[in-house]
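dumping this here before i forget
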Amino acid sequence: MNLYPTRAGLLRNVDDLRGPAGRLEALLNLGEQDAPYSALVCHPHPLFGGTMNNKVVYHAMKAFQACGLPVLRFNFRGAGLSEGAHDDGRGEVDDVRAALDWLDREYPLPILFAGFSFGSSVGLRACCGDPRVKGIASLGLPVRAGGREYHYSFLAGCAKPKLFISGTADQYGPQAAVEAVVDAAAPPAELVLVEDADHFFTGKLELMQAALRTWIGTHFMVTAP
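structure:
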């Protein structure tokens, strides 16, 4: 295990995360020893440059780590140094499941999930039915992108706490379409709209991060008096 200091704390290169398509490149930001949860963050579409080092992914990781949680990030199959080839979202759901399995082995803790864009779409599918995942945050939920319509009817059966953070100027998640997805999802489902933010939260990353951190702290870090 290689540990080295960074501004975000201690960072570990993960060498033993494997999915159905082979080894998945991954990083683990370590949390406090008494952390009540672990966290997984997934990146945007790899065919358009998305990796675990994406700025939105990094800011999401920092929100979880600010609460003392260990946070796993990984590259989907075919991205970065991960083995395999892009599978149009099908195999990537299995990659998320492999990452959840790794976290469960490494930390016998309930898991919180956040995904950005494509990572949100596939992560919702993997996490909604997984009892180990206790909360799901969707950042920049894609509804219409690259000529493709994304459908989320399965969220009607997902009773886990869900947070959706979206920009009012998101070109891939029009506000009305995202509101319709949230309205149709099983409660609890909360929508935070970042005014004038585009899909990538350009110039608004701190607002996105603050909304995510508030949700984590309010719903999962409250201790009994």
